[in-house]
Automatic annotation (TrEMBL):
A cellular component term, taken from the record's GO annotations: MICOS complex
Localization: Mitochondrion inner membrane
Family: Belongs to the MICOS complex subunit Mic10 family.
Taxonomy, superkingdom: Eukaryota
Record's protein name: MICOS complex subunit MIC10
Predominant cellular place of this UniProt entry's protein: mitochondrion
Ranges that cross the membrane: 22-41
Organism (species): Pisolithus microcarpus 441
Pfam families assigned: DUF543
The keyword Zinc-finger is assigned to this record: no
InterPro entries with a match to the protein in the record: Mic10
Record keywords: Membrane, Mitochondrion, Mitochondrion inner membrane, Transmembrane, Transmembrane helix
Quaternary structure (record): Component of the mitochondrial contact site and cristae organizing system (MICOS) complex.
Known function: Component of the MICOS complex, a large protein complex of the mitochondrial inner membrane that plays crucial roles in the maintenance of crista junctions, inner membrane architecture, and formation of contact sites to the outer membrane.
Length: 86
C-alpha cells in the first residue's frame, strides 16, 4: 500500500507546478515578443515586455485556479447541509 501524501507535499507540488508554468509561459511570451519586435516593430522593447507580461499573467491565473478552485467562474460550493436538504 502506498503511504498517504501529506498536505505539505501537496502544497509543494502545487508550487512547483506554478513555478514551472510561470517559466514556460513567460519564456514563450518572451520569445513571441522578441520575434514580433524584430519582424514588426523595428526592434522596440515594448513588445517583449508586453508579451512576457501576458505570459506571466496567464501563469498567475492558472496558479490562482490551482490553489483556489472555488474561484472558477460558474462553480458553486455545495455545503453538506444544502445537500442533505435536497
Amino acid at each position: 500500500m502506498s503511504k498517504p501524501t501529506s498536505s505539505e507535499n501537496i502544497v509543494n507540488e502545487k508550487y512547483d507546478r506554478c513555478l514551472a508554468d510561470l517559466l514556460v509561459k513567460a519564456g514563450v511570451g518572451f520569445g513571441v515578443g522578441v520575434v514580433a519586435s524584430v519582424i514588426l516593430f523595428r526592434r522596440r522593447t515594448w513588445p517583449v515586455a508586453l508579451s512576457t507580461g501576458f505570459g506571466m499573467g496567464a501563469a498567475y491565473a492558472d496558479c490562482d485556479r490551482l490553489f483556489n478552485p472555488a474561484r472558477i467562474p460558474g462553480t458553486r460550493i455545495i455545503t453538506q447541509a444544502e445537500e442533505e436538504s435536497k
